[in-house]
């Protein structure tokens, strides 16, 4: 992939977006950036900053699919000049980025035995190993944890500086709202906090408790400690071959898969007077919540979660001079312009979601390498804007203003 350029942009600049000056971007060739990403400095070399950006890829950065690597490059070009260190940690033996170089994986207060022994099982064992590194990394070093499939669009450094990184700000966490209307929950593909955060500390204690004696997340949805938390995905349907899954079976599958989300929901709804923890109040006052659909799912909203449709729109070329714009081009243009001007990011859906919805934009970009960055296409326009343009305004905090009595009263690790 060649070094990008901001001279004579091949794409129109959307409203409420401005070009980023070249001196604020890292414009080294991709090969040089790869070398730096494979050999980042340890956080101990910079004890006075928590500008750490963490990713995880079990088999190492070098094995990332090309579309994910381009996403990491975009983060690097935008954020490394502003003092951020980007690390893609792994479980590769002898790798400088092996998680064991950052955390003691044998410490039972950090990781369950199945992680330490490498005995996690189940269809989504790799995703769950990723879940297990997020809280410990943030609790130990602070910063941002993001999935490699989260394409960053908005100004992460500016938002950090005005909230979590600002000692006068009331906010201690940045995260995406989970989109629920009956209770409070967060998505687990993006977290920002300083180290030793009290919310993530409690979440991690509960997650470790759920993993005790377990090799996978199967059945965790029914753990007594989560009895007060509604299951996820109760309106989903699934048919595989002759097997038709009931709504309860669908909810159990999804909840086991996103068990980290259940953990956060419980802690957000926990009131424990013995440890002076009031989850509903903490959520309302301390978490800068980004809106679910607008914030990170806008392409899915425009395409009704139809992955092939999203892929088709993003793969189209913009109309050439003199050509009349088609209906699909108009929709693709509206989608990209709104993503670049209004969304803080875009989450490429993968994992278990493919069982419910079939191919997604992310799975199709993986199947067709290079299709996410073809010059002159709407995907190319989105990729270009992620590096070269900044939004005029920060995303608003949607907050948890609605009164909420909570889900559980008592100690975190005591059954109701």
From TrEMBL:
UniProt organism field: Podospora fimiseda
Any single Pfam family the record assigns to this protein: Caps_synth
Protein name: Capsule polysaccharide biosynthesis protein
Gene Ontology molecular function terms on file: glycosyltransferase activity
Gene3D superfamilies: 3.90.550.20
InterPro entries, per database record: AfumC-like_glycosyl_Trfase, Nucleotide-diphossugar_trans
């Amino acid at each position: 992939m060649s070094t990008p350029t901001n001279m004579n942009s091949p794409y129109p600049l959307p409203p409420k977006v401005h070009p980023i000056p070249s001196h604020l971007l890292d414009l080294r060739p991709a090969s040089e950036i790869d070398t730096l990403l494979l050999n980042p400095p340890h956080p101990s070399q910079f004890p006075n900053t928590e500008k750490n950006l963490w990713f995880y890829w079990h088999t190492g950065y070098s094995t990332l699919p090309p579309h994910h690597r381009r996403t990491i490059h975009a983060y690097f070009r935008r954020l490394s000049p502003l003092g951020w260190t980007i690390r893609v940690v792994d479980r590769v033996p002898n790798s400088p980025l092996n998680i064991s170089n950052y955390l003691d994986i044998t410490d039972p207060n950090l990781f369950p035995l199945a992680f330490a022994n490498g005995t996690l099982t189940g269809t989504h064992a790799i995703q769950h190993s990723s879940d297990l590194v997020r809280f410990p990394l943030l609790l130990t070093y602070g910063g941002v944890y993001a999935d490699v499939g989260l394409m960053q669009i908005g100004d992460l450094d500016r938002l950090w500086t005005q909230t979590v990184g600002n000692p006068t700000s009331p906010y201690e966490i940045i995260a995406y709202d989970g989109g629920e209307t009956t209770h409070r929950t967060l998505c687990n593909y993006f977290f920002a906090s300083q180290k030793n955060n009290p919310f993530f500390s409690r979440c991690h204690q509960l997650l470790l408790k759920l993993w005790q004696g377990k090799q996978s997340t199967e059945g965790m949805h029914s753990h007594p400690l989560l009895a007060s938390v509604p299951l996820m995905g109760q309106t989903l349907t699934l048919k595989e071959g002759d097997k038709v899954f009931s709504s309860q079976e669908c909810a159990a599958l999804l909840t086991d898969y996103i068990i980290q989300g259940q953990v956060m929901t419980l802690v957000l709804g926990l009131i424990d007077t013995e440890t002076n923890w009031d989850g509903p109040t903490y959520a309302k006052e301390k978490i800068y919540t980004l809106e679910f659909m607008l914030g990170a799912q806008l392409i899915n909203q425009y395409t009704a979660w139809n992955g092939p449709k999203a892929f088709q729109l993003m793969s189209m070329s913009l109309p050439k001079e003199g050509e009349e714009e088609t209906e699909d081009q108009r929709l693709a243009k509206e989608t990209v312009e709104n993503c670049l001007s209004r969304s803080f990011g875009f989450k490429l859906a993968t994992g278990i979601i493919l069982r419910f919805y079939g191919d997604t934009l992310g799975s199709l970009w993986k199947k067709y390498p290079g299709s996410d960055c073809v010059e002159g296409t709407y995907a190319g326009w989105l990729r270009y804007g992620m590096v070269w343009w900044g939004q005029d305004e920060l995303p608003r905090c949607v907050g948890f203003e609605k009164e909420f009595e909570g889900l559980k009263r008592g100690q975190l690790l005591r059954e109701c």
